[in-house]
Amino acid sequence: MASPNDFKSAEKTYSSFIGTLKWSVPLIALITMIVVILIAS
Known about the structure:
The protein is mostly helical. Helix content is 90%, strand content 0%. The protein is rod-shaped, with a radius of gyration of 18 Å.
């Protein structure tokens, strides 16, 4: 079984990943929407 320190480290990494994901997904969606609008017009 993993030590408690490994769990703390994994939790910190996961939290950081989720935080980044919350910002990057809407940003990528916005950029995609702008590109689609530019191509369509």
